[in-house]
DNA sequence: GATAAAGTTAGGTGGTATCTAAATTTAAAC
DNA sequence: GTTTAAATTTAGATACCACCTAACTTTATC
């Protein structure tokens, strides 16, 4: 459904905008993603076309319910993986965060198994909350 | 360096050809990869262009030293991940194999950490040998 | 040698991610 | 209120990737 790039953008936006409550504009998004503003805008349009964001030109984006669900799920995946890398493998939090990003292709059911095996941890290495596990 | 598809082809070829010693032709490769022979041939050419295979038209492929190293590494990654999913998370071997394939984007250093944390297991769930860990 | 199977090549399609250049809108300064 | 700077958007181009079909070539078999 989502390409890898789209997922990366959506996760970033979710973290900033829905969890931290900080608005993020196209230029700032582009800077974080390491691309030009035009590129970021195009990805926003694509995410909107897939029904995950509402995109009003010049006014910014807001999450649709589906987008919120998807973003929450991506963030949960990321944090469970971080927890694994840090708590079990002994990575430092920074490494854990970086490496977790390269594992986001893990399926939801795998992450659920992982969550169970780790005893349903409630926070990631930096103390941010890990959401609810589907299998609980 | 390698695209995801190229890595998938190389891993398959390595397993069949270098580990099991069974030659695999273009048509058979294509069938396994779920594509047409022309597509498989194109990927072989790309792997050759990247210096991992020697490709002699109509005569088949053989691994270069670099290709062998790369293939061995991919196979080790796969088996360590399988071991994790099966031995720690309780997946059945079939699921472990499938899910491991979706995690091959993991970095070598991460897989090394994982290997260490798992006590340097010597075989994957189906009993095949896991190669040497760089950090040992 | 004829033929079937395997393999190859050329050329085309569709999708993704990126860019530049040019327009537009917004917001802030005067 | 106008001007101006910054943010944003759009259009159009490029490059790469993975796949395909169609047509050709080689190899091996009878």
Model description:
The structure is a homodimer of 136-residue chains. Chain A is mainly alpha-helical and 136 residues long. Chain A folds into two domains: 60 residues, Orthogonal Bundle (Arc Repressor Mutant, subunit A), CATH 1.10.10; 65 residues, Winged helix-like DNA-binding domain superfamily/Winged helix DNA-binding domain (Arc Repressor Mutant, subunit A). Chain A has a two-stranded antiparallel sheet. In chain A, helix 1 packs across helix 3 and helix 4 packs across helix 6. The radius of gyration of chain A is 15 Å and the shape is globular. The model of chain A has no long low-confidence stretch (mean pLDDT 94). The first copy, chain A, binds a DNA duplex (30 and 30 nucleotides) through helix 3.
Indicate the topology.
The structure is a homodimer.
Chain A lengths: L3 H16 L6 H8 L3 H13 L3 E4 L3 E4 L1 H24 L4 H9 L6 H10 L19
Helix pairs in contact in A: 1-3, 1-4, 2-3, 4-5, 4-6
The structure holds a DNA duplex (30 and 30 nucleotides).
Percentage of residues in helical conformation of chain A: 55-70%
Mean pLDDT of chain A: 94
- Per CATH, the class of the largest domain in chain A reads Mainly Alpha
What spatial form of chain A do the alpha-carbon principal axes imply? Answer: globular
Largest sheet: spatial strand order of chain A: 1-2
What brief labels describe this structure?
136 residues; Arc Repressor Mutant, subunit A; 6% strand; 6 helices; homodimer; DNA-binding; mainly alpha; two-stranded antiparallel ribbon
């Amino acid at each position: 459904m989502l390409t890898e790039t789209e997922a990366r953008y959506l996760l970033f936006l979710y973290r900033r905008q829905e969890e931290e409550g900080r608005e993020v504009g196209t230029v700032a998004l582009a800077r974080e993603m390491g691309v030009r503003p035009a590129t970021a805008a195009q990805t926003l349009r694509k995410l909107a076309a897939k029904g995950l964001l509402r995109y009003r030109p010049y006014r910014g984006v807001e999450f649709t319910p589906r987008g919120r669900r998807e973003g929450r799920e991506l963030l949960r995946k990321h944090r469970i993986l971080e927890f694994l890398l840090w708590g079990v493998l002994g990575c430092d939090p920074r490494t854990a965060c970086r490496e977790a990003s390269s594992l986001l292709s893990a399926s939801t059911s795998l992450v659920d198994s992982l969550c169970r095996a780790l005893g349903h941890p409630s926070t990631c290495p930096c103390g941010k909350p890990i959401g609810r596990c589907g299998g609980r």
